[in-house]
């Protein structure tokens, strides 16, 4: 059965790989599964046909036969469960990798998204200069903890897993802020993720949607 995912018709991130369909593309590339992409406009995202797939009117969605999924965590978990390459065979290591997926989305990403909101949407508010340092410090608190746990290892728990895929995807949002560079091992960790051939293919495919040019790889 052909896998079909949805993505922005015109990605608001400028093709920098921050739109969440990139996470799903990356997972599918890691496990070697072909897929199709259906591009969705902002208007179409709020129409009944798309809302039937994603009740909150967002992207990406995932369709395979009569299965329809939304939320990147659920989609990547499904891909990792269905196909070899993103979860260890050992039961305990497998569970730890899944734990890191939850940690990326539930513990590390929220303050990062809050920072993005504070900078992009609240920068002109009179209280922004006072609030922004507090938000940045919350991000740093999480990065300090994550940095200590990663240490000098290449990945979070043994070989690369779905946990690393999700964590790197989350941390990528910090590259333009400069905060990530305050933690050299985390910056190197993200760079290792970006260097993976599967990530490069996913990034190029998402960039091609923005530029209108086919991927070169």
Task: Describe the fold and architecture.
By secondary structure, the chain is an alpha+beta fold. The chain has two domains: 3-85 and 198-211, Glutaredoxin; 91-196, Glutathione S-transferase Yfyf (Class Pi), Chain A, domain 2, CATH 1.20.1050. The chain has eight helices and four strands, in the order βαβαββαααααα. The protein has a four-stranded mixed β-sheet with strand order 2-1-3-4, covered by helices on one side. α1 runs parallel beside α3 and α4 runs parallel beside α6 (162-171).
Query: How many domain regions?
Result: 2
Query: How much helicity do the residues have?
Result: 40-55%
Please identify the top-level CATH class of the largest domain. Mainly Alpha
Unreliable residue stretches: none
> What's the number of extended β-strand segments?
4
Going by helix content, strand content and strand pairing, the class is alpha+beta
- Report the major sheet: 4 strands, mixed
Number of helices: 8
Gross CATH architecture of the largest domain = Up-down Bundle
Strand content: 5-15%
Strand order of the largest sheet: 2-1-3-4
Morphology? globular
- How do the helices and strands follow one another from N- to C-terminus? EHEHEEHHHHHH
Radius of gyration: 17 Å
- What's the rounded overall pLDDT mean? 91
CATH-assigned fold name of the largest domain: Glutathione S-transferase Yfyf (Class Pi), Chain A, domain 2
